[in-house]
Amino acid sequence: MSPNISPNFIDKAVGYINPRWGLERLRQRQAMALYEAGTSKNPNRNRQTDRGDADHGIAMTGYPMLQLAREAQENYDVLKGAINTLESRIVGAGLETEPTVLNQDGELNSAFNAQLKMSYQLWFKQPMLSSKLSGGDVQRLQVNSGFRDGETFTRFVSGKGVPHKSPVPLSLELMESEQLPWNQDPMFAADKQIILGIERDRWSRPKHYYFHKVHPGANNRYTEAQETWRIPSHQVVHYYHQIRANASRGVSGFHATFRRLSELRDYENSEMVAAKMAAALGIQIKRHPDMITASSWDDFKTLPGERLFRFQPGMIADHLAPGEEIEPINPNNRPNNGLNDFRKGHLHLAARGIGFMSYSSLMGEYNGSYSAERQAMVESWMNLAPLIDHYVNTCWQPIYERVIETIIINGLIELPADIDIRTLFFASHRSPTMPYIDPLKEARAKQFILQNGLDSWSNMVRSSGRNPNEVKQEIMQEKEFLDQYVRAANDAKIK
Fold first, then answer.
1. Strand 194-195 versus strand 170-175 pairing type
2. Residue-wise pLDDT tens digits, 275-295
3. CA angle 278, 282, 284 (to 5 degrees)
């Protein structure tokens, strides 16, 4: 268990003035013994502390880590660039969603799938109730918050009395992590099934979420921020980054790199200050006491205005006293020649800790050999694949299913009698694929693999993030079009 931290005199005094401040102060002190990213002191003395179960650790350090992550994204370019890369690689401009409903004979129902796609795209243009964000914007915000904060919540708002922005009577509402209480509020203490704001059944499945009615940080709305409302779990999609089994809430994906990046950031700022000081022009006048008598110096230093030097190109300093010389103050160890190598080594380690990107992607340096750059890209995309799968299956697929369900229930599309109802929610959500470093080399390698029977054409298409059946249909359609186009062009030449 974590250390039992008793309230001290200051804690009690703060709690007497404002109980909420006192509770928050005590909770921050308890966080000192848990995640390094949630502490404010050197953790080296207590690295093997037993932190209890997953929910206990998250309750103590989840909010401090969330604050660290947001501050770093707002003020540190390295972390901001990492999150931008994550968004572009998981969803890009938006997942390409293709319904793949099957008939009872196992074939794609092209007409019905086309109708579903049209209705879905109309909804995807503006799925939010309170803003003009597109579906792609919503997906990028979900990925951003889910990895940076550790979790994000999406609530379904349905009904015909709601001012929806599409023909589909369903809208989304995004809610940030702190809108679900982190600590064990007194109202939850009597019921052990409510943990971190989530009510669970006997099988530990979420039943209800107790959200604050407004964001806890909302100005001039303190009373409403303390009130919660109970929302059924089927109206909420909880997308979170889980690193321990049975955890109810998520942990920031940057938790293992916070300390390194924070200290590296402080070091960079110190080096910047040192470089600025070195770049500032400084001049000192050196005097040789053995070459000038005290009396003559006393006479010279009393001359009015003689100590004013106006610097300009090609100037001649002809008003120095005997025995004086001008010498610039210019430290010769700035800028630090070892800074780049030192910084590069730490950012290599940080990139490994982040996981989904290589050092080249993190820093935008692509000056290695083809083999080295491709190896780094392949490794980063292999680490990215689980993140894509997790987002699609736990966040966007449930949203897609609710959209299709709303379309069918409200009679926007007639359900065909010959479809396999079990495949009604089947769809492929294509994310951006790994780009080619050298397209010609990649194409020749794939051609060699196919010609020697080392892999199938369908598997290669799947590895590029596409559906082989759809690609076959597109090729057949384009082949027919190209044949007609070439025939028409030849007929025009003959005439």
1. unpaired
2. 777 777 677 777 766 655 544
3. 135
Structure tokens at 292: 């000038």
Task: Tell me the pLDDT tens digit for each residue of 52-95.
Answer: 777 777 777 777 888 888 888 888 888 888 888 888 888 888 88
Q: Which of 347, 44, 63, 372 is nearest to 196 (CA)?
A: 63
Alpha-helix residue ranges (DSSP H) falling in 91-182: 110-125, 135-148
Residues 6+ apart with CB under 8 A from 344: 359, 363
Q: Residue 474 belongs to what H/E stretch?
A: helix 468-494
List, for residues 321-357, the tens digit of each pLDDT value: 777 777 777 666 677 777 777 887 777 777 777 776 6
- Of 186, 162, 181, 180, the C-alpha closest to 172 is 162
Residues 6+ apart with CB under 8 A from 433: 464, 465
How far is it, in rounded angstroms, from Cα 342 to Cα 334?
Answer: 15
Question: What is the pTM assigned to this prediction?
Answer: 0.72
Residue-wise pLDDT for 116-142, tens only, equals: 999 999 999 989 888 788 999 999 999
32 vs 260, residue with greater confidence: 260
Instruction: Provide φ and ψ at 379, rounded to 5°.
Output: -65, -45
CB 321 within 8 A of CB 327: no
**Sole residue written with tokens 């790994």:** 434
Q: What is the residue type of 98?
A: E
249 band by pLDDT with thresholds 50, 70 and 90 = confident
Measured CA to CA, the distance from residue 350 to residue 435 in angstroms comes to: 23
| More reliable by pLDDT, 2 or 300 | 300
**Alpha carbon of residue 414 to chain centroid:** 40
pLDDT band at 308 (very low <50, low <70, confident <90, very high): low
SS3 of 192-235: CCEECCEEECCCCCEEEEEEECCCCCCCCCHHHHHCEEEEEHHH
User: Which stretches of 280-415 are DSSP H helices?
Assistant: 294-301, 339-354, 359-363, 370-391, 397-409
| Cβ 463 vs Cβ 131: under 8 Å | no
**Quick check: 179 and 213 in contact, CB under 8 A?**
no
Cβ(170)–Cβ(157) below 8 Å: yes
- The answer to whether 268 touches 192, Cβ cutoff 8 Å, is no
Decide if 421 contacts 405 (C-beta within 8 A). no
Quote the tokens at residue 18. 């404002």
Instruction: Provide the 3-class DSSP secondary structure of residue 207.
Output: strand
Phi then psi for residue 282, to 5 deg, are: -130, 140
Check whether 300 has a pLDDT greater than 70.
no
